[in-house]
Automatic annotation (TrEMBL):
Coiled coil: none annotated. Reversible hydration of carbon dioxide. Belongs to the beta-class carbonic anhydrase family. Pfam families: Pro_CA. It comes from the Eukaryota. GO terms for molecular function: carbonate dehydratase activity; zinc ion binding. Binds 1 zinc ion per subunit. Zn(2+) binds at C29, D31, H92, C95. This is Carbonic anhydrase. SMART domains: Pro_CA. It catalyses: hydrogencarbonate + H(+) = CO2 + H2O. The keyword Metal-binding applies.
Amino acid sequence: MSMCLSLIMIHKLFNKVFDKHPKAVFFTCMDSRMIPSRFTQTNVGDMFIVRNAGNIIPHSHHFMGEVTMNEPAALELGCVVNDIRHIIICGHSDCKAMNLLYKLKDSTFSSKTNRQLSPLRAWLCNHAHTSLEKYHQLELCGTNRPLMFSSELPLKKFAAYIDPEKKWSVEDRLSQVNTLEQLANVASYNFLKRRLESHQLHVHALWFDIYTGDIYYFSRQNKRFVEINEFTVDSLSDEVSRYYS
Ligand SMILES: [Zn+2]
């Protein structure tokens, strides 16, 4: 699917639910090949964008000691101060941070000494170890069985088939797992709980294939990432409207 068509489709997908300005707080990776305003066809004033290595939102327990504050501060600025109603977490293929995270399975590679030498290893070990653990479950169970994710609310737990068609690399599968794992981290912040529970705030997961320009939306109905294209956009749009209205 062409990049141009992807842009039209993603605009159509979110058009029904995004009626405010700014429309979303968008968390994605700092990778230079990711240009969020381009592949979401958004303009000046549309989105608050937060970027880091691996599109990670640290769990709130890291915030308790006032150690990690950038991402939670961004959530508060976007969702509380500016009353933005949608959070989008977007991962991508060939993510260098996820490639490194996959290597951190090795206990020597992720040793305390090595973490102290590498802020990137320390960042990933501290904040993405749950993604790695979840990925380990996928390796044990296989891609034909769904993984359970705790989601942004206890009642919204969901199942996800990761790469049931076996078309992605192990690192890309880990990237998809990591993207979904961030939904629970969003909900760990007390200042967002009431908004999430009263359906004033919604969390979406996207995944971007940087080589083809294809964009995938995580469909809770289909329990998998579904490519947004001319054949899927209407049903995805209905799902988004139904689920998030
Ligand atoms: Zn990346």
